[in-house]
Amino acid sequence: MGTNDTQVIKQHLIDPEICIRCNTCEAICPVGAITHDSRNYVVKAEVCNLCMACISPCPTGSIDNWRTVPLVKAYSIDDQFSWDELPAELSAEQLAEQGVSDAATQAVETAPQPSADPTGETTFNSAAFGATLPPWSAAHAYTNLYGPKAAEKFITATVVGNVRVTEVGATQGSDYDTHHIMLDFGTMPFPVLEGQSVGIIPPGQDEGGRSHHARQYSIASPRNGERPGYNNLSLTVKRVLEDHQGKPVRGVGSNYMCDLKIGDKVQVIGPFGTSFLMPNHPRSNVVMICTGTGSAPMRAMTEWRRRLRASGKFEGGKLMLFFGARTQQELPYFGPLQNLPKDFIDISFAFSRTPNQPKRYVQDLMRERAADLAPLLADPNTCFYVCGLKSMEEGVVLALLDIATKANMSWDTVGAALKREGRLHLETY
Q: Catalytic residue among 218, 254, 295, 348, which?
């Protein structure tokens, strides 16, 4: 057909069957090509520049999907919002019927490559500094052992504990709280590491009559279990009763989880995550910055280090924790954190809604502790972990930039090293 060939593209798509709606792709996309509704995450074909920044951070691989289609018939975001599964790849015959030649098809068959400048802009982008690789000494992570595309669609766990870990919710008649939920897998294998997550499938159907999709929760226990030596794990779940705009909404997954009783059965998929993993070498320092339920992976990392120390297997490395919440009453695990030895972990709390007190955020605490953080920034054995609300991410990275600059370190050099060496991890939502 020569010059009259229909233009063809290899369209980037997200598999709705295995996507766990973690928001990593949307948060990291430098051009705003990814968006979502109440069910699906989708890619705007007209905006995506094939920079590939979203590929590695995706914990499930759901982002790594492509379909060869005529440009004029690229799948719209409305098409993608309606999907329960990816459409089949168009055959050569189907493409030919739409005016696409073999030559045009072959031209796009190779995987898209990153552009030289994925951002095309000079504005500060905190997500660009987040590592997509784990620290060099991290243990090997197993992923996707159970899920829609695995041999087993899910694994069944038994609830063996469900306790409130905030003062909020203890008041009679109040159910706005955060729970520590323990799941046991019996004899079935489910190996996990600190920093990984799982998906929980709530029972029932949504308003469209479709089964609920899995909800992602970070694991709050270390690799050898909430109860050491047992095949179990724990999750930190906040009951959701309002959306980000403050409008009343009853979160399907969170309320299901918070209301679980001992002995209940839960369908679990995963585990997920290959980069937000802690270092294992003895000289490693770990700096943890979190808000709310973003404390889950930090609790897992802290407890693993504590157990290693108690057994005499880990004597080096520094632990620092910057923990933010609106009030002390809303901060999970406040009591247990207070009981940890001061020579084991250095903890700073920030509360933004304490009556008659100025608002303080984790980035404010970091700047106050610049003298302690600067040497850690300069130490190639230090890893930083940020987990919690998306709104904190930019402030935290800017605080690190300021601390480096005031210590006469080049942030371009430091920031690049943190990303390249898997030492700055951002997991925000």
A: 218
State how far the alpha carbon of 320 is from the alpha carbons of 35, 63, 285, 327, 344, in Å: 34, 33, 8, 20, 9
In the set 217, 256, 333, 385, the catalytic residue is: 217
Selecting among 29, 51, 290, 387, the annotated active-site residue is 387
Fold category of 155-272 in CATH: Elongation Factor Tu (Ef-tu); domain 3 (2.40.30)
Question: What whole-number distance in Å separates Cα of residue 6 and Cα of residue 153?
Answer: 40
**For the chain, which residues make up each domain, given as ranges?**
2-123, 128-138+275-428, 155-272
Domain 2-123, what architecture? 2-Layer Sandwich (3.30)
CATH of domain 128-138+275-428: 3.40.50.80
Which parts of the chain have pLDDT scores under 70?
1-6, 102-122, 172-175, 244
Rounded distance, CA 350 to CA 324, Å? 5
- Is 385 known to be catalytic? no
Same-fold call for 128-138+275-428 versus 155-272? no
Q: Which of 26, 226, 330, 427 is catalytic?
A: 427
pLDDT recorded at residue 113? 45
Q: 120: buried, middle or exposed (CB in 10 Å: 19+, 13-18, 0-12)? A: exposed
- Residue 387 among the catalytic residues: yes
377 within 8 A of 208, measured Cβ to Cβ = no
Q: Which of 75, 176, 230, 429 is catalytic?
A: 429
Catalytic residue list contains 218: yes
How high is the pLDDT of residue 117? Answer: 42
The pLDDT tens digits for 191-225 are: 999 999 999 999 999 888 888 889 999 999 999 99
Look up the pTM and report it. Answer: 0.88
Cα separations in angstroms, 364 against 104, 127, 205, 299, 393? 55, 20, 43, 22, 13
